[in-house]
Amino acid sequence: MKEHTLFLQAAFPAGERECRNKASWYREEFEKILWQTVRLSDGMAGKDVLCSGEVFTEFTMRAEQQTERLTQIPIDSRITQAEEKLRPGCPGDIDERMIWQICQLNQRVLQLLSGLIMFKKQILREVTSCRMYAAG
Fold first, then answer.
1. Burial category of 135 from C-beta neighbours within 10 Å (exposed 0-12, middle 13-18, buried 19 and up)
2. pTM flag (> 0.85)
3. CB 42 within 8 A of CB 35
4. Contact status, residue 1 vs residue 125, Cβ threshold 8 Å
5. What is the pLDDT of residues 22-49, one digit of tens each?
6. DSSP string, 52-64
7. What sign results for the dihedral spanned by CA atoms 28, 33, 34, 39?
């Protein structure tokens, strides 16, 4: 969702400052969630997941740098660096604190995603009624 909101932010022309700012806010919030997910995942994900190319690939860092250069939208590449350093593991017992943190994270994701869906519906209404321009 971090990347999705980055592309959303980049799609607005400079005149749509309020929408660009709102998309930026969502991107920053999803980055925070991704940071928390990476921290909670260290030593918890299987080696097969970490090697699958779904978390990061050999191209991720370069793609982030190029995207940042072309869009002038800051991308926190430290997240990718942290993902590359994730240690595999498959603990048998997850403690209550970890369960609580995961539940809290999931609730935050659902809240944020719900707001993003409403924002995108608003954009779609504005664009389809010719009251707003957005690329992509």
1. exposed
2. yes
3. no
4. no
5. 999 999 999 999 999 999 999 888 889 8
6. TTSS--TTHHHHH
7. positive
